[in-house]
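Homework help board

Subject: predicted structure for assignment chain

Our instructor gave us this sequence and asked us to write out the predicted structure in token form, then describe one feature. I got the tokens but I'm not sure how to describe them. Can anyone check?
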Amino acid sequence: MNQQNTVQKRIQEEQETNGTFTVADDAVFMEYRHKLYRWQFDETGWHDTGLEDHAEISPIGRKGIALAASGNTVYAGKREGELFLSLDHGDTWRDVTEKLAFQYGYFEEILFAGSTVYVSTDMGVMHSPDGETWHALTDADGNRRIMDRIAVDGMTTYCVCDSGVYQADNQTSTWEQIIPELPHTPISFAIDGNTFYIGTKQNGVLRFQRDKR
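My token output:
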């Protein structure tokens, strides 16, 4: 019994301290035991980037640090809400939390569309071209929408929630609704050209075909 308890404790510890990973060009970034590591194709081992997340458990049970990388630029969102930016492949980091567009509790996802980064939180979505200037994305009425999932197709960003699928307009920082209210709660989201695939909690995968643009 003691051995079984030890194994269960180890499994729980691994689940709580190990997180997600992301890939950028020739590098892989991965969280292991609350620390963020980098591996590059010309390196013989994992490099400790110096970024550490001291929070024990994510407030929503999500796995670890929210990560996004493009070229030399890396964003890392900690479990308790701090956002860090590196412009040199994770060699150095700076806290950009105070620059963000609105207050929030935690991160849902971080994704790049070209050079623009999108940060989805429990209080809405914001975007930035450089990590210094941030704008909240709102609907036509000026309200922030809390999105369940983000997906990127080329340079265009889409989000999905119960009220439908939305396309981001970076020029106006607004969402344009392109698919109406969904019959089921979305839990995953993918795009293939003009086809949208939405995994739901209650009823499998929904597929929507958009008219060619």
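Reply (TA_rk): Your tokens look well-formed. For the description, you could write something like this. The first helix runs from residue 2 to 17. That's the kind of observation they're looking for.
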